[in-house]
Amino acid sequence: MTTLDGEERVLATAQHIVRSLGTSETMTDDMLNILSKFDDRFSGINNMLPKKQEPVSQEAILPSTSEVELDDSLKASLDEVEEVVFQWDTLSSDASPQTMIWDQYPQEGEKYLKAVDEVQSMLDSLSVSDSSVDRVQNILQLAMARLEVEFRHVLVTNSESVDPDTLLDYLAVSSLAASSFTSNGEESVDMTPQTSFNGPSFISSQYEAAEGASSSSGDEDEDVPVAQPVTDFNPIVELLPSTVVADLHEIAQRMVVAGYKRECCQVYTNVRKAVLEDSLHRLGVEKLSIDEVQRMTWEVLEGKIKKWIQAMKVGVKVLFASERQLCEDVFQDIVGVGETSFADVARGSMMQLLNFGEAIAISRRSPEKLFRILDMYETLRDLLTEMCVIFSGEACAGVREEASGILLRLGEAARGTFAEFENAIYRDTSKTPVPGGAVHPLTRYVMNYIRFLFDYVDTLKQLFGDRKELPKLPGEERTIVADSMGDDERTFGQDDLSPLAVQTIWITHVLQNNLEGKSKLYKDPSLTYLFLMNNLHYIVQKVKVAEVRALIGDDWVRKHTLLVRQHATSYQRAAWVKVLACLRDEGIRASGSFSSGVSRVVLKERFKTFNAAFEDIHKAQSGWFVPDYQLRLELRISIAEKLLPAYRSFLGRYRLFLENERHPQKYIKYTPEDLETYLNDLFEGSSGSSLKWKS
Questions:
Q1: What is the pTM assigned to this prediction?
Q2: Distance from chain centroid for Cα 586
Q3: CA gap 288, 352 in Å, rounded
Q4: 627 C-beta neighbours (distance < 10 Å), count
Q5: N or C: which end of the chain has fewer CB within 10 A?
Q6: Inter-CA distances, 359 with 279, 356, 381, Å
Q7: Which domain of life is it from (predicted)?
Q8: What is the pLDDT of residues 422-473, one digit of tens each?
Q9: Residue 59 CB neighbour total at 10 angstroms
Q10: Cα-based distances in Å from 140 to 95, 97, 346, 392, 625
Q11: Do the beta carbons of residue 320 and residue 350 sit within 8 Å?
């Protein structure tokens, strides 16, 4: 196939410009002078022109009488195609510059393309020395200029950005299709008809296949609608009508064959790239530099991340996939052009999205970012395979490499942010004790954080891999850390549990160490133990959630449940030992005889001491708080089981010695039932008891 090289085409085009503009000999000379100053290769154009330039017309490029006579049939064919081409050349005919062939006269488009094919065929059959080559080349160049204009016009007038609501609806249908298998592995089927959307229409290959199968079968029940599985739903948007795509394909074929591939691709890229960027912009994608992202407040950035995740899913599954399909349809059977054109159209937008991921991956790490980083990691991980298919080929290798690299860096950011979460617990040095020994805000924050992390349990397992070593806090040696976790946890961490389980146990260990320090802020030892009991009980209850418990095991739960009981026992011992000591017999009897050796003075003082101690405890501990109802109930019962029997026994032994005294109620102020009522008033966290004390 003979085609013009770049230099020949430039010279021929310049020659045509001079002919077209040269209405006088002076103007022609001026034009030649300008062109020859621009490039000395244009200085020879004068030798190719008639001595007097006339306005461009059909006769201007007719062969002179000195030319070798063409075969009559070839000459007639050349005259015919020349007439068709010149009919639509605005410089050499009366055609309006605003008149577009495929816009207003589509039937003429076929005739025009046929003429181009004939010109190309003539050019291929002629030798370079043939005197008619220049004439054929000029006709072809005029035709290519016209086709380029038509190609751009068809693209521009039919291309529009896709409505974001339509994209999101279509993505939802695609996501539903992906999850439409039932638990027993059978496909669920969609009995609803295909939805019709406004704007760009949507296609689904399985529906078309189903319709084709139905029409081709000769069954009597062929009109009965058959439910089709939606598991193979193909989320491709028909960005341009099929008739328009066919026209673009025909034009592109002629331009590429004629050596105008670069011009054709440039027009296509410029138009489709702008449309794709507009579609993404309507989805909320902004052009942000890494510096701009890193200067944003977290509240603003979190909203940007949500939009990024949405744009990535819609972009990869719908927009980029559809653009790839459109490129392949327009440049079908034109080797390499579809792939490179798609790369030029989509690469910039995809890299813009990936750059946002890069900015997040390298930003300052803080615990509140972890969940959004994991969201981004999961999104990119789940889309990576599709991205590699859509952005296949050498031209898109950079996109694939960048996506894989950013996925790795987001994973590193997630692990680093998780480590920062551990360090933040370790560094928390708040010195204000929680009123009433209630659950500390740090405990709630950490355990709820862990609970939400388990929404990402599979991803976290993937990120932590197979590492078996125990974590390490700043300033601590690993051997010290392992010893502090205890033999059981160290053994489990190394042998039985996954790396994620070790990390989770380690976080609870760091939290418990911090709480031990905060418990020392209380001056009352009994409140110290109540605080530790409350907080450890809260930790255990959060761990008992199925996902967490399954990860770290029942042994951890049993061990720490026992530790909660130990703290409760320590609280009772520290809080009630003085009260219970008042109910002992020691010191009341002066001699070994029980009946004759009771000292009423000592007995009166013992009852008064008991009453005062109990009232002091009640006044203090009615303001203490055990937030868990079941734990609060169990603690009251445990206290009552120790106090009430001892009081009943003491009262039964010594009541008779005081009943005959004046004002016995001054000493025996409470019945066992009264004490039980007051005990049930404990740990409500109120500012004071609503019960009135007996005077």
A1: 0.75
A2: 73
A3: 8
A4: 14
A5: C
A6: 23, 5, 17
A7: Eukaryota
A8: 999 999 998 999 999 999 999 999 999 999 998 999 999 999 886 655 555 5
A9: 7
A10: 18, 19, 32, 35, 92
A11: yes
